[in-house]
Structures are given as C-alpha cells and as structure tokens.
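Is this the right way to post structure tokens for a design question? Let me know if I should format differently. Anyway, here goes:
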C-alpha cells in the first residue's frame, strides 16, 4: 500500500527477514498474560491472509481473544478466499488507505458481531524497540507523536 505518513514503514519490505510458523506465533500469544486481544497491522495483513487466517482461527477458538485488523484495502477489494475467511474472524476491521492529512476520519471502522469489545479511535499502542524505533498502532495525535519523538531522541 505504501501509505504516506505510515508509522510502520519497516514492515513494507517483502524480503524474508523474520519468518515464523503459525504455531510459533500462536504459542507466543498464548503465553502472553494480561491481553484481551490481538491486532494485525501492516505492512498489509491481507497480503498474508492464508497464514493469518489460520492464526486468527486459533486465537478466536482456543484463546477467545478479540481480533482487530488494520488494512489499507477497502472491504470490497478483499475478495479472495482466505481474505474473506480472515474477515469473518475479525471483531473490528479498520479499512482504507491511510491519509496522514486526515488521520481520524479517512478510514472506515467496521465492527462485526462481537459485542465484547468496542473500537475507540483514541486508543494508541506504542512500542519502542531497543534501537529507539517507535511503532504506533492506532490514531496518534500530533502532540503524542511529538512527545514520542522527543522521548526517543
């Protein structure tokens, strides 16, 4: 998708760097305490729909966790078999090309049958790795972005 303003540009490459089996990822998730759900984000999750569908099925059926997916695709573009199956497992899908000039309203939020969890577009997850790189998931405000930039300098 290569959306301008994306915070996860390091995930865009199709070079094989860190490959994991579905079972390995599932074990990592199942051994993580205190979580209510899992978020698939990009790069672009629906490019890997077959494997993520298998992982999502186990997350939902064995762990009963919520599943949120951020995608640059519009829902109508997700018409391949595994993409459709992955959509059926999601509780929340945030879909559409990211536009940094209007980050809070250019993507559509779809909530499916699960009433267990409500999407809140003010929630932001921030992960800072050992090299000081920040990974943001959600809709950070300009103030939060600037504060993170200052903190990791």
């Amino acid at each position: 998708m290569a959306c301008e303003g994306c915070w996860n540009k390091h995930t865009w490459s199709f070079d094989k760097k860190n490959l994991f089996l579905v079972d390995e990822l599932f074990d990592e998730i199942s051994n993580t305490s205190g979580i209510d759900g899992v978020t698939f984000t990009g790069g672009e999750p629906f490019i890997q729909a077959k494997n993520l569908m298998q992982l999502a099925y186990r997350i939902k059926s064995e762990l009963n966790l919520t599943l949120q997916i951020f995608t640059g695709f519009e829902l109508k573009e997700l018409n391949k078999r595994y993409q459709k199956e992955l959509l059926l497992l999601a509780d929340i899908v945030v879909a559409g090309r990211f536009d940094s000039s209007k980050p809070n309203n250019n993507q559509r939020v779809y909530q499916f049958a699960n009433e267990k969890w409500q999407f809140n577009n003010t929630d932001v997850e921030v992960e800072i790795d050992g090299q000081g790189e920040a990974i943001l998931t959600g809709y950070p405000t300009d103030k939060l972005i600037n504060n993170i930039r200052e903190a990791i300098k």
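Format looks fine. Someone answered above. Worth noting: The first strand starts at residue 37 and ends at 40. Residues 37-117 form one domain.
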